[in-house]
Amino acid sequence: MVIELNSLEAALERVISLTHNVDTRVIIGLVGKPGAGKSTLSSYLIKKLPKDTTALIPMDGYHLSNAQLAWLGRRDRKGAPDTFDSYGYADLLQRIKENHNQDIYFPIFHREIEESIAAEGVIHPDTSLVLTEGNYLLLGDAGWNRVAPTLTECWFVDVDDDRRMARLVARHIKFGKSSEEAHAWAHGTDQHNADLIETTKMKADVIVHLD
């Protein structure tokens, strides 16, 4: 049965209940359409939870490089499932789930340069809660289908589509696209990906409504 949460505060309460008196590392996946509010939710949780034992891993760090995308002919579809190293991302989560004895490094994506920087993030042995956010955590395709089994729970972040689209266009403009380019990308590549992500919604353990 899918659990539904209707506020940031309710989401925080669930995290606290999942981590209370638990000896194993808890890994929570935050999935949703582009612009749904995954980062809003993760930022809120990170601010409210103990900083020394909580970490965030954005899936975006596993974007293929622009050079690799150009070579593969996928540069104009950046953000689609096959423009990420899904196997590398799944392998990272598996290591984090199983290995609590050493530092584990991961790449972080920077929108201002549209590239990832290797080994910029780190999970320490004393990290007991890991949040990981991204679009395709529940996808059934090869590589992606290895993500969900590593998670304690996977949460689908849901929001009104008009609000989501406005937020998405504003983000594209903020990072250098013209208004026309931003609308075209949001209603084109982003929307195609959003339609795909919507099909995975009922695989989630929890749906978080952020309207």
Task: Supply the key terms.
six-stranded parallel beta sheet, 22% strand, alpha/beta, P-loop_NTPase, two-stranded antiparallel ribbon
Structural class: alpha/beta
Mean pLDDT: 95
Instruction: Give, in spatial order, the strands making up the sheet with the most strands.
Output: 1-8-7-2-6-3
Shape: globular
Care to describe what's here?
With 211 residues, the protein is α/β, with parallel strands linked by helices. The protein has one domain (3-209): Rossmann fold, CATH 3.40.50.300. It has 7 helices and 8 strands; from the N terminus they run E-H-E-H-E-H-H-E-E-E-E-H-H-H-E. Helix 1 (8-19) crosses helix 2. The chain is globular, with a radius of gyration of 17 Å.
Topology readout:
Elements: E1 3-5, H1 8-19, E2 26-31, H2 38-48, E3 54-58, H3 66-72, H4 86-98, E4 104-110, E5 115-123, E6 129-134, E7 153-158, H5 161-174, H6 179-187, H7 189-198, E8 206-209
Parallel strand pairs: 1-8, 2-6, 2-7, 3-6, 7-8
Antiparallel strand pairs: 4-5
Helix pairs in contact: 1-2, 5-6, 6-7
